[in-house]
Amino acid sequence: MPHRVAALIFNGSAPFELGVVVEVFALPRPELDVDWWYELSVCSPVAGRLRAVGGFEVETRHGLEGVAAADTVIVPAWPEPRAAVPEAVIDALRCAHARGARLVSICSGAFVIAATGLLDGRRAATHWRYADELRRLHPSVVVDERVLYVDDGLLLTSAGSAAGLDLCLHLVRRDHGAAIANQVARRLVIAPHRAGDQSQFSNRPMAPADDDRLRQPWSGHSLGLIGR
User: Which of 53, 95, 148, 170 can bridge 163 by disulfide, Cβ–Cβ 3.0-4.6 Å?
Assistant: First the structure.
């Protein structure tokens, strides 16, 4: 049987984080020598059309029944950290956790997991710019904005965007081992492993570019510089 993954999205969600989940868990990978792979469903509180950042729409075929059937539930983002999470969503996530499903968040999705109370007294990651707000709204959560992701068994949280890829690969590594995770990373053309306790950012200044052409204002002619 495949491992069922549900991505829970909302109106106003950013598409990158959802794309991360789709890329890792929705694509068939027949080249891998594994007994089972993942089956992804994209869900929302009520099935239907949702607005996405960037001016387009996403249509989900599954409501919260998709969460009820999942082995892993991933919340890629929560569009408005100060907004109240719907009680139906909180109840669905609590029930999923109670029956042994993994709950995973990327970036601001930590606010949704925190709203269930399941992160109280536990260490959790989120994007560094949301850390203070997460502490204010959920003071019982031990927020760590320094790290890429936190694995607390059935509760996993990560920082934003690229850190979501790191966490999704970490899940593959947990499920199938390093060799399989490395093959997925190679297909994604990314580093095979960044440890969860790695810092979210570095204050070290980048060296200036040696090529003066790279510092010129953009123009249509500058496109020809690529690949020279």
Answer: 148
Strand partners, 143: 124
Q: How far apart are CA 99 and CA 94, in angstroms?
A: 9
Q: Is the pTM of this model over 0.90?
A: no
Q: What is the rounded distance in angstroms from the CA atom of residue 100 to the CA atom of residue 211?
A: 54
Which H, E and C letters describe 93-129, residue by residue? HHHHHHCCCEEEEEHHHHHHHHHCCCCCCCEECCCHH
Sequence-distant (≥ 6) Cβ neighbours of residue 76 within 8 angstroms: 7, 8, 9, 13, 14, 17, 18, 20, 21, 106, 107, 109, 164
Dihedral (CA of 97, 77, 42, 164) sign: negative
Quick: pLDDT tens for 5-55: 999 999 999 899 999 999 999 999 999 989 999 999 999 999 999 999 999
Closest CA to 141 of 115, 175, 161: 115
Are residues 128 and 201 in contact, defined by beta-carbon separation less than 8 angstroms?
yes
DSSP-assigned beta bridge partners for residue 149: 158
Q: Is 9 helix (H, G, I), strand (E, B) or coil?
A: coil
Residues, the chain? 228
